[in-house]
Amino acid sequence: MVLRYLKSLLPDRFGCDEEDVTLAATFDELNLSADDTYEIVVCLQDLYGIEIPADCLQSFETLEDMVGYVEDRL
Questions:
Q1: Distance between CA 42 and CA 18 in Å, rounded?
Q2: Domain residues for 8?
Q3: What is the pTM of this model?
Q4: Catalytic site positions
Q5: Tens-of-pLDDT digits for all 74 residues of the chain?
Q6: At 29, is the secondary structure helix, strand, or coil?
Q7: Residue 60 is part of a domain; what is its CATH number?
């Protein structure tokens, strides 16, 4: 569910190739900056009504880390 959302968000908003948006993808591999990552987190918070503390951003290395964190809170 969360990965499906990211597969639509990242190509549309950040220009990532959809086939590159996988759980194993790192933010560096997707050419996403820290500001981009923050914007993604804001979108996830708004969509799912959860809070993702700023200190968690540093711990996210792959999309799997981010997806897992969000899904654990749903």
A1: 20
A2: 2-72
A3: 0.91
A4: 35
A5: 999 999 999 999 999 999 999 999 999 999 999 999 999 999 999 999 999 998 888 899 999 999 999 999 99
A6: coil
A7: 1.10.1200.10
